[in-house]
Amino acid sequence: MPLGDDLDSRIRAASMAWLRQRCTPEDPVVRRDELLGFQFEGRTFPLIDNQLGIRKPQGLTAALSILTTYTSDGARAPYEDAVGEDGLLRYKFQGNPGHYTNVGLRRAHELGVPLMWFFGVQQGLYLPFFPVWIVAVDERLSQVAVALDEAQRHLSVDGPVSLIERRYSERITRQRLHQPVFRQRVIQAYETSCAMCRLRHRSLLDAAHIIPDRDVRGVPAISNGLALCKIHHAAYDQNILGIRPDYTIEVRADILQEIDGPMLKHGLQEMNNVPLVLPRCRADRPAPELVEERYERFRSAG
Question: Which residues form the HNH nuclease domain (predicted)?
């Protein structure tokens, strides 16, 4: 098989085309074994390294992909890869800065080639982001800056960034990575099921914040999230129903007195005093102090 730039461009094009077909709105995540077993031109060509976070295949000019391993909320901050003052995410070098994988990241920056970023949402399960680009290398802090789209690629990372540019870039990072990762981590923790009504259609499920994300305490952590269908998410946000500290649903008193069609009766009123279905992993369950704080807000709103 010929090596060099031709192989480099072919594998990047083929792998991203496969991801576009494989990852649908109904099933947007990909398993580790699928990434390790990717087939390219008649042979197995892993898209991730079996042990390292950076994949730099032999024969390719630059790194092909980067990976962020899933860890529970209690083990680290929700996003270990920090956002810089320019609103761009940083990805740390791994080990010795001179290691061939880190050299591969530098080459990706020099050549401007697209990469894939696989973000862990559960053990062995990843949400892919592609194409992404390495737009700066910070040797002092042993890290690179990653652009999630074309708009971020054109930001100035070597000089001062205006407040408008920074806020715009931060919004892209939040919308393109933080919110999708939070959504998938929450939905996976609740086994693709509404915590209130058990609806299992992924496309109709949301990751609801217990403490809203506009609040300083509204962190994108599973323990601050609930998998809810769209109607119960809206009802929760509008304080039509709340969740008691014992994880039982409470419907607002005036809603219980209303007379309307079957949706009100079966979709809302019959949820009163129904217990939430909680994640099996205790670390993923709603934080009691957050549930209690949100319940008090619900009671005050009523």
Answer: 194-243
